[in-house]
Amino acid sequence: MFFAEQQRPADLSATGRNIITRGIRLNELVGTEFLVGTVRFLGVELCEPCLHLGQALATSAISPPKVVRRLVHRGGLRADALSSGEVAVGARFQKGA
Hints:
CATH topology: M1 Pyruvate Kinase, Domain 3
Structural class: alpha+beta
Strand content: 15-25%
Number of helices: 3
Largest sheet: 4 strands, antiparallel
């Protein structure tokens, strides 16, 4: 993971992401419905990293542009919520809901 590679604590709030996942291939979810907790989503498009994210995660060892290049195709997924429900810490993920 990016934070481990940079030998720094994982302050995930700096990423500006609404839901943080681990072990899920988000790029494969574009055009796919899935559940997180009890909420049904549709993967819309990849969320490629921007300079703002690069600046938030930059260190003296890695510049903002290098952060952005490192996270290309690993920046997340934009998704539409198709239902109401609850997403809590540790919520289960199910593909093809």
